[in-house]
Amino acid sequence: MKLSEFFLVFLFSVVLACPIVKARHADIEMSFDSPSSASASESKMIKSHEKFKQQKKLIVELFSCVDEYEFHFREMKYLNVLGKLPELKIKFSRAQNIYRRYEARMNEQLKIMGSLYFSRYQLFTGLGEVLKNLRLDSGFRAALMRSGTVVLNNYSELLEYLKTSPVLKTQELNDLKLKIANVSRRNQKYKITSKYFELDDNKIPAGEQLMVLEIKGNRALVLYMGPTMTNSQIEGWVNLRDLEKRTSWVNSNKDFY
């Protein structure tokens, strides 16, 4: 397997990963044993909502190390991104050991919230491996960082939604699951099937891989997932009809965006 193919598989397999996390014992017990003083049905509903809020708060606290690391990652200061990664791994390991013990008692919405935090952590560790690998072509490294940041943005947007959401209704939960599934689908790569594909004044040969970052109207923002002649990635806007004609992209994939 080529080195570039290895990193593509390693880095982006995280979108299918599933998670695990930390919490304070006193707070957790409180979230399951809230007192009640109203009627039986009202008391049960109040207790359920209080438990939900307490558990959600605990998840955010458990994964605060991931949120803090994202701040350093977005600064894109090489030494900070790599230097703080070992600390993140230690904190996350402690958190997941505690989270395992309580995950089964959480509802599906909170489990999804935890899984998104876990996926972000996996993404950070994967991108850390990309940054420190000196054998990797610098242009390809830039493309991996660019595509990884797009995936991170998708996860962070969904997490912010869950942080402020009450208990979701069935349809809302199904819509959320679809959005998460679409993050994985957006991450797929498309092969160039014609003799070459022209992108940002570069002719990329057949067999190379592309990723579609964004769709606007009848145009797509496309990223080349391979080595370049410079230290930067190759990306640009192309017509969807041309993309479908010259690559393995199919028009129905617009629904993922």
Going by helix content, strand content and strand pairing, the class is alpha+beta
Largest sheet: 4 strands, antiparallel
List low-pLDDT spans: 14-36
What would you report as the Rg, rounded to the nearest angstrom?
A: 21 Å
Beta percentage is: 5-15%
Order of neighbouring strands in the sheet with most strands: 1-4-5-6
Helix tally equals 10
| Termini gap | 30 Å
Please estimate the helix content: 55-70%
Strand and helix order? HHHHHHHHHEEEEEEH
In total, how many domains does the architecture comprise?
Answer: 2
Total beta strand runs: 6
Shape, please?
A: flat
Give the mean pLDDT. 86
Report what the structure shows:
It is built from 10 helices and 6 strands, in the order αααααααααββββββα. It is α+β, with helices and mostly antiparallel strands and 257 residues long. It folds into 2 domains: 3-186, no CATH class; 196-256, no CATH class. Strand 2 and strand 3 (202-205) form a beta hairpin. The two termini are 30 Å apart.
Question: Which features does this protein show?
Answer:
single chain, 257 residues, alpha+beta, four-stranded antiparallel β-sheet, two-stranded antiparallel ribbon, 10 helices, 6 strands
Summarize the structure.
With 257 residues, the chain is α+β, with helices and mostly antiparallel strands.
Question: Secondary structure elements and their pairing?
Answer:
Layout lengths: L2 H10 L12 H8 L7 H23 L1 H12 L2 H6 L1 H18 L5 H25 L5 H27 L5 H17 L2 E3 L4 E4 L2 E4 L3 E8 L2 E6 L10 E5 H7 L11
Antiparallel strand pairs: 1-4, 2-3, 4-5, 5-6
Helix pairs in contact: 1-7, 2-3, 7-8, 8-9
